[in-house]
Design a protein that fits this description.
282 residues; Rossmann fold; 7-stranded mixed sheet; binds adenosine-5'-triphosphate; binds magnesium ion
Amino acid sequence: MAEIIAIANQKGGVGKTTSAVNLASALAHFGHKILLIDMDPQGNATSGLGFDKKQFAPNIYNVIIELLPMDQIIKETSVKNLSIAGSNSNLAGAEVELVSALARESRLKGALSSIKNNYTFIILDCPPSLGLLTINALNAADKIIVPIQGEYYAMEGVAQFMEAVQKIHAALNPKLELEGAVLTMFDSRMSLSVQVKDEVTRFFSSSLFKTIIPRNIRLAEAPGFGQNILQYDSRSRGAEAYLTLAEEFLSRRGLLAAKKTPSGACREQIKEEIKTIEESLT
Ligand SMILES: Nc1ncnc2c1ncn2[C@@H]1O[C@H](COP(=O)(O)OP(=O)(O)OP(=O)(O)O)[C@@H](O)[C@H]1O
Ligand SMILES: [Mg+2]
């Protein structure tokens, strides 16, 4: 049965979608069957993987509001082992329509039960809010990963968000656990970054992923081409970082990465660079 991972932080623009798309893609690259669910009406994960979000119909809205079976909306992506349940702006209506709906917090959880056996991991890309869509995601999830932007005001709102997660754990979903935080868009040239890393480490302690996602222009460019970072530039530091994050994620579960990336030598070199950056920060 799939393990369900929500990528969530109520703060906007911190790297949730970039992490959801590229962690999902890296896990698929290592041979695991992955379903990515776009829970955000912005549909960035959907378009980021090359789909025209306006044409993605039916989509997760129809599953959550009309109880359409999940397998009727899932599409294969251009990435081997990676499927997607897309969304678009009509999902914004669900946030309102759910308020008066029966079992409004557990619509996604119910929908996933019939397809859970088909995947190793289901990754949920959450919107930047703590509305009913995020609550549905956290109610369905086993684990939560919180991307933290390694820049100004990184921790703003994080404590409140984690309190809300705690409440969902207590009231709705006792199996929900914090997988950890991941630092994103990290710029080691900024002295502030060191402070941010210290602060984030204090708050999340050992749950913080050792892998740090650097600020890398290729990561920002890739969605414009409807590609993940491994398709767009497999030799970039962004690709290396998300492959390493996926390896760390798998090794936490005692699962070894099944397949090595094609860019072997280059990858070692980039790994060294990232290590140097990390050492300069400790
Ligand atoms: N490591 C990175 N380096 C450079 N740019 C990045 C990186 N990660 C994300 N970005 C860019 O930063 C912006 C915000 O990232 P992203 O969309 O992943 O955040 P988000 O948390 O999903 O945002 P939202 O809250 O709106 O859903 C995007 O333009 C993205 O391409
Ligand atoms: Mg997003």
